[in-house]
Amino acid sequence: MAEAPASLRLDKFLWFARIVKTRALAQALAEDGRLRLNGRVVDKAHAIVRLGDILGFARHGDVRILRIEALPVRRGPAPEARALYSELTSEAGQA
Fold first, then answer.
1. Tell me: the pLDDT tens digits for 3-60?
2. Segment 37-47, tens digit of pLDDT
3. Are 85 and 22 in contact (CB under 8 A)?
4. CB burial class (10 A; 0-12, 13-18, 19+) of residue 33?
5. Which of 17, 30, 67, 92 shows the smallest number of beta carbons within 10 Å?
6. Beta-strand runs (E) in 4-91
7. CA 21: distance to chain centroid?
8. CA nearest neighbour of 43 among 51, 32, 54, 52
9. How far is C-alpha 26 from the geometric centre of its chain's CA atoms?
10. The pLDDT of residue 70
């Protein structure tokens, strides 16, 4: 069994965590400068993410803020992918 890495490329994390459907979409999202990692704008797909990092972005009209809870070694099924992060986006104010 493979050991979880200490860090991972941002585009790989987005794809492995099933936040985007393809790695190409993950790379485009990162390179468009629409992601924030720990409050800083990211414009490179190869930015490094680690446990505890905070990731913020807007997708489909919603703002999502996620805390990275685990780093994957592969792209697994949806329940496994959902366990990789916790949603910090407030449900209050969303109608």
1. 778 899 999 999 999 999 999 999 998 899 889 999 999 999 999 999 999 999 987 7
2. 999 999 999 99
3. no
4. exposed
5. 92
6. 8-9, 35-37, 40-42, 48-49, 54-59, 62-68, 85-87
7. 12
8. 32
9. 9
10. 95
